[in-house]
Amino acid sequence: MTVLIVSCHPDDAEFMMAGTALLLKRAGCAIHCINIANGCAGSSTLGPAETAAVRKEEAMKAASLLGAVFHESLVDDLEVFYAQNLIRRVTALVRQVKPDIMLAMSLEDYMEDHMNAARVAVTAAFLRGVKNYESIPPEPATLNDVMLYHSTPHILTDMMRRPIVPEMYVDISDVIGEKEKMLACHASQKEWLDATQGFDSYLKTMREAASAVGGMSGRYRLAEGWRRHSHVGFCRKDENPVFELLPDRCLMVPAR
C-alpha cells in the first residue's frame, strides 16, 4: 500500500505522525511526504530564504531516515490558505502518488497554517477523482480508494483548549527512538520553538505528547492518536487500512 503524509511545516509530521509512519514502513508500505509550507519563518536569526534552505535539508534528512519519497514544499509559511491554486497543486500530487492512506493534520489546532493544511489535504483527496477539476500541473483523475486519518494536534486540544480525543491509538513505544532521531534532524527548531511557542525542549515535548496520548488510550505507554475522516467521497464505509496493517499495534475506541 502507498501512504501520503501531508503536513504543514517541516517537523510537524515528526511531532505527531512519524511513529505510525515508521510502523507502516515496516509493514511494507511505500511512504511519500510533503510539507506544504517551507518553514521560512522558523528562525529568529536567519532570513527567509536561508531558513527555508536549512529546513528543507533537515526535512530531507528526516524523510531519508523514514525511507520516504520527499516532495518539495509549495508555499512560504503563513501562506497556507484554503485557496484554489494550492488545492490544485496538492490535488496533482494526490493524483500522482495515488495513496491508499493519507495521514493529515488535525482539522482543529492551535494555528491557522495547520488547520488550512488539513483542509487542503482533505479537498485534494476528494478531488482526485473529479475528472472535470484541473490540477496544477494537469494530472488525470484517479478513482482509487483513499482513507484519510487526522492526527492529534501538537497540544492535544483545539485553539479553544477543548481536548481532541482520538478514535484510534497506535502503539509507538518501540519506535520512539527512531521517531526522536527523525525529529532531531530539525535541529534549527530547538531554540525557535523554545523561544516562541514554549516547547521547553522539542524532543521532550514530543515524548510528553506521546506519553499523554498513550495515557488516553489506557493501554499503551507511548502512542499516536488518529481520527478517520468521513468515508463519503473517499472509500468504503468500513475501511481502516492502518488497523488492518497494524492489528497488534492499534486500539479502536467507541465513538463518543
What do these coordinates show?
- The protein has 256 residues and is of the alpha/beta class.
- It has a single domain, classed as 3-Layer(aba) Sandwich (Rossmann fold), CATH 3.40.50.10320.
- The chain contains nine helices and eight strands.
- An eight-stranded mixed sheet has the order 3-2-1-4-5-7-6-8, with helices on both faces.
- Strand 2, helix 3 and strand 3 form a beta-alpha-beta unit.
- Helix 3 packs antiparallel against helix 6, helix 4 crosses helix 5 and helix 6 runs antiparallel to helix 8.
- The longest helix has 19 residues.
- The chain is globular.
Q: Numbering strands along the chain, what is their spatial order in the largest sheet?
A: 3-2-1-4-5-7-6-8
Average pLDDT level: 94
Number of helices: 9
What spatial form do the alpha-carbon principal axes imply? globular
The CATH homologous superfamily is called: LmbE-like
Looking at the structure, the CATH topology is Rossmann fold
User: What share of residues are in beta strands?
Assistant: 5-15%
Write the layout of secondary structure elements.
Blueprint: E1 2-7, H1 12-16, H2 18-26, E2 30-35, H3 48-66, E3 69-71, H4 84-97, E4 101-104, H5 112-127, E5 147-151, E6 168-171, H6 176-184, H7 189-197, H8 202-217, E7 223-228, H9 241-245, E8 250-252
Parallel strand pairs: 1-2, 1-4, 2-3, 4-5
Antiparallel strand pairs: 5-7, 6-7, 6-8
Helix pairs in contact: 3-6, 4-5, 6-8
